[in-house]
Amino acid sequence: MGGHLHKLSRLSILAAVIVVMLYLFPPFHIRRLAGGPTQGDGKLAAADIGRLAADFWNEHLAVPSVPPTDARALLEALNQDPTAAGQRYGRRPGIGGPMFYLVAGEGRVISTDRAGVWLDLGVGGPVRTVLQTGPIFGSALRDATGLLHPQDFSSFEFNELGARLNRLSETRGEAPLRSAVQAGSRVQFLAAARLNDTMGDAPVLKLAPIRVRVQ
Amino acid sequence: MLTWNSAIVRAAAALGALLLLAACHAGAEHGKVDQTAEPGRIAIVVSTLNNPWFVVLANTARAEAQRRGHPATIFDSQNDPAKEAAHFENLVTSGYRAVLLDATDAKGSVANALQATRAGVPVFTMDREIDSREAAVSQVLSDNYAGAEAIGEYFVEQLGEHGNYVELLGIVGDNNTWNRSRGFHSVVDRFPGFRMLAQQSADFDRSRALEVMESILQAHPDIDAVFCGNDAMALGAYQALLGAGRAGRVKVFGFDGSQDAVQAVAQGKMSATAMQYPQVMASTAAEFADRYLKGERKLPGRVPVAVDLITRSNAARFAQ
Question: Which helix (H) or strand (E) segment is A116 a member of?
C-alpha cells in the first residue's frame, strides 16, 4: 500500500508539473466564434440586408429593446449643454461625429412644412424639434440603440443597413403623419434623433419616426 | 481500497480537467498586457506619397508609433498593388512586428495583409478599407458614406432640388470611392429634379481631373454642379471650369478637407468639402498596434471616424 501511495504522489507531482507547463505554453486556445450576422467581409446580399433591417426594426425599434430617453428630459439637457447631454443620453458608433438618441415623448403640433411636423414639447430654449416627413437621411435609426456594431459588417453592409432602416421609417414610421396633421394636434412618438447644429443656424432636434400616434 | 488502476484513472481525469482549464485560461492569446514589452519595428505602408493628404497620414502614423517607442518606417506603394506586395514581402522577412496599412486596393491588398497576418505580423488599416475581417486586426476608417450624405444634403439645398451635374469618381478599386458615391447618391437620387450627365473616374488625381473635366465640358457645356470624390479632383475640375470661363457658375463639391480646398470654399470658389481626420485615423491605428504588441487582444475590428461638412459659413473654423 505504501508503494501505491508513493507512486500516486509521484504521479501527482508529474501531473502538477505538466499543468504548470501547459499554463505557461498552452497548446491551443479556445476562441469565441466571430460574432454578428456577418464576417464583415461584404458577403451579405442586398436581400439579406433588407431582412436584417426589417428584423431589427421589428425586434429592437418598433418595440424598443433599449429604453428610450424621455424627449422632454433630452431637450432640457440639450438646451443646457449639448455636449453633456450627448455624453449622458447619446450613442455613436465610432470616433467623433453627432450623438444619436432613442427618444419617446409627446408634443403639440406648432406647424408643418417640407422639413416635417414641428412640435412644442413644453420645454423652453433655442433647440427646436421636428418630426421628419419625406426622405430620411443619416444613421440615427441604425445607431441610436447602440445595438448594431460596425465591426460586425463591412462598410457597405453597415451603410446599406442604415439606408434600409431610413426607408422603413419613411414607409412605416411616417405613415400616421401623412393624413392631415393640424396645428394644435397632439402627437405621441417613438423616434431616433440627432441634433442638427452644424451650420450655425438655430439647432434642431430631428426625429426620424419609428412609431407615431396623432390625437 | 485505492488500487493502482483507479489511481491512474483519477489522475488522468484530473489532468484532463486541468488541461482544459489551462487551454481556456487567459494566457498569451487573451493578452496579459505587458507595458514593459520590448518595442518592435512598425512598417507604415501607404498608398501614395504623391498626395499631401497621405503624407499627413503617413507622417502622423510614424510620429505616433515612435512616440510610443516603436521605430517606424514609411513605405510608398505609389498606388501600385505590385509595389505594395513587394513591400509586404520585404517587411515580413525583415522582422517588422506590425503594419499600419493604407491599402492600394480593397480586394487586391487582402492577400498582402493576410500574408503578414499569417506570418504573425498584425495589420491595422487606416483610411482605406480592405475586404477581409481576417486579414486585419482593426480597420480605422473615415465614415465616408455619412460625410457624402452631408455633402449630398447641402448639394440639394444649394441647387434648389434640381439641376444637371457631373460626378468625378476616385480610384475604382478603393472602397472610399464607392462609399462616397453611394452616400452622395443616397440623397441626391431621391430628388427627381436632378440629372447626372456624366460619371467618370479621375483616380483621385488633380491633373487627371482637369483632363476629364475638360472633355466633359465639351460634351456637356450646360452643367450646374460637379461632385468630386476628393479635393484634388475638385480643384482640378475647378481649373477646367476656369479655363472654360464657367467658374463661379458651376458649383464644385469635393471631399477630404485639404487646406487648398478649405481656402477655396472660404473664397467661394468651391461650395463645400468634407473634412476627414487623417491624424485621428493614423494615431488611432498606431495606438492599436502598440496595444497589440503589448499583449492586448480585445481591439475593435472596425472604427469609423466621423467626417465634418465644410461650407462657407464654417470654413474659417477649419482653416490653418
Answer: strand A116-120
Q: Residue A196 is inside which H or E element, if any?
A: strand A186-196
Q: For residue B141, what are the contacts with CB-CB under 8 A and spacing of at least 6?
A: A155, B125, B126, B127, B128, B129, B281, B302, B303, B304, B305
For residues B134 and B301, give the distance between their C-alpha atoms in angstroms, rounded to a whole number: 10
Q: For the whole model, what pTM was predicted?
A: 0.84
Mean pLDDT throughout B85-102? 96
> Where is pLDDT greater, at B250 or B33?
B250
Nearest CA in chain B to A96: B306
Facing residue for A155 by CB, picked from B15, B132, B175: B175
Chain A closest CA to B3's CA: distance in Å?
7
Question: Rounded to whole angstroms, how far apart are CA atoms A191 and A169?
Answer: 9
- In chain A, residues with a C-beta closer than 8 Å to the C-beta of B308 are 198
Q: Which residues of A touch B29 (CB under 8 A)?
A: 26, 29, 31
Predicted ipTM beyond 0.90: no
Which value, to the nearest 10 degrees, does the dihedral of the CA atoms of residues B57, B177, A134, A55 take?
-90
In DSSP terms, A76 is beta-bridged to: none
The alpha carbon of residue A188 is apart from the nearest alpha carbon of chain B, in Å, by 28
Low-confidence ranges of chain A (pLDDT < 50): 30-39
The average confidence (pLDDT) of chain B is: 91
pLDDT for A27 equals: 65
**Type of residue numbered A149:** H
Contact residues, chain B, for A28 at CB < 8 Å = 23
Q: Do A23 and B146 touch (CB under 8 A)?
A: no
Mutate to test the interface with B, among A30, A32, A95, A143 (most CBs of B within 10 A): A95
What is the predicted pLDDT for the residue at A34?
A: 36
**What is the C-alpha to C-alpha distance for residues B62 and B70, in angstroms, rounded to an integer?**
9
